[in-house]
Amino acid sequence: MFTRMLxxxxxxxxxxxxxxxATVVTFILHLCxxxxxxxxxxxxxSLRGSTTLHVLVFLFMMFNALGNYIMTIxxxxxxxxQTAVPVCSPHCSDKVDAHYLLNDRHFxxxxxxxxxxxxxxxxxxxxxxxxxxxxxxxxxxxxxxxxCLYCLVLGVAFLTVEYSTSFENPLTFLTLLPLSTxxxxxxxxxxxxxxxxxxxxxxxxxxxVCACFCCQQVLLVARGQTWCQMQRGQHHNNQSPWKTNLxxxxxxxxxxxxxLPVQTVEMSSEDAHKQG
Length: 276
Known about the structure:
Layout: H1 2-38, H2 45-74, E1 98-100, E2 105-108, E3 113-116, E4 118-122, E5 127-130, H3 134-163, H4 172-185, H5 191-223, H6 227-231, H7 242-250, H8 254-259, H9 269-275
Antiparallel strand pairs: 1-2, 2-3, 4-5
Helix pairs in contact: 1-3, 2-3, 3-5, 4-5, 5-7
């Protein structure tokens, strides 16, 4: 139990650092290598417009991903004022990272808080995800998956243009990393080419994970259920229609929240006092 908890605390510290490193690397590759190579500076006005469009789309998605990431941290899951470690409920199904109490309350050992309507603990943000910051987490997953897919496509185009790598064979992507690693140690390809190949797999993995997380969370929100409740096999007795459940999380101005990382759910007087 102690060893596993130590691993979780280490993951809680390493995951945010990994996210920021991957973000900085993505910025550098996109703006310093992909765009200059795929859209060289020519006199053609249409080409300059295409370059500007790609840069603006990338910056827009990156702004929303980082903005919602920050909002997930700034507006953490709602917690109580309890500071002492409460007694675990006999019905607790997970005693490693959180104690299930009663009335949909959990004591998170990593956050060291009693979380109301806890869904799960996100290691990339370093805090718990609940009803209060669920919208920001979902939008963070959406834009992160879009950025990864976008960079994956540009990365493939970069390898094709710069290094004449052929992706006509569907099995090329499966063998690309091991072959590139071997060619690198043989001195056939450069370190940049191997690094871009490695990032293709990173973007693919992160993109798929974020897309799956997004679909799962939207489904749970529409059902008025949390991940913790689903793990315990507890059927939430929320009789509200799915549109109402989504509105409770995304707010009435949900369209604005889709394009900008802003608050779309009205804050209660208590929350407003805390923020003030």
